[in-house]
């Protein structure tokens, strides 16, 4: 749970930047929390949300997001669209793209259609909260028929801001995609910084595009390891941080309970009333390394985006990377290499030359990778296209509300994504 100070800072910051953001029933929540309801505000605020708490606790992630989306569509005067993860908002809007005729029919009739993962008892209780709204259903049909560019602001013309629980690391991909298409023209606000299950900081600058967080000294005990690592590493405390430097986070969430390296690297962006303001840079565990080259997730993502820009008409929906050793014999007899699975919109197939562009970008961006490729100790990267919705199904199979890893190391998930390869 959030410290009450964090909840109050968040709500005050949100109201100051977006004056109508706390209007009664003006916030729709898209967040899957099986077993217990949650909201970034930190406590139940029934007058703030138009989405019933039970909708977020359904056993199926896909069912929870679809039901929450239906309740959000009922409220034309939304001010805030809030998601626990950017991926949840991304998948809910993908469900809108795929199923808007059925959603419009449910809106018009004031009903909740049966679906997998929606128990009958829960369906009956939630359906009792719906009312028929033929006018809103007609508006939904008209807007979706025009396409989905900027659909969020067209469906909710009074919307002021999109609040997401995480907007960095693996979630940056979804934020970028939403900003470019469905949520075009809307600011994204990531209010909190969490690591290893602890709340560490709050974002006091909601209108800035890149989130940065004020570290609050009494929320958790933090130590920092300077990067790059020193020969004899020594942790430093909050008062010893230098602006512009990067640090690995060492966290004691409850003094005396546990102390661990959180696997997070932060950059000190400045200070606010003597407290450090930080920007998350990367997660140390998310790196590709088949020969010790260690390519971080966020830098691989930049290279991938550059390659996608060379594929006319393509828009990146999602991706994962796999080190070839995880595939075993199915990866072939060549040297260790990267296997990359991507979901694209706007392009159905890629030529061999286009596929090679990603390997070429990696060689240009990482001299050590280029050196290993030249020596033959790392084989050519293999790129696979997967079918539409493959990654949404992968997140459902993951069975966790936490962000999905971009560098995949679980064999069961790899088998699932391999089954969706189209080329």
From TrEMBL:
Pfam families given in the database record: GH3, GH3_C, GH3_M
Gene Ontology MF terms in the entry: acid-amino acid ligase activity
Domain GH3 middle: start-end pairs: 214-283
PANTHER family: GH3 DOMAIN-CONTAINING PROTEIN
GH3 C-terminal domain ranges (all copies): 310-397
Gene Ontology terms: cellular component: cytoplasm
Protein name from the UniProt record: GHDC protein
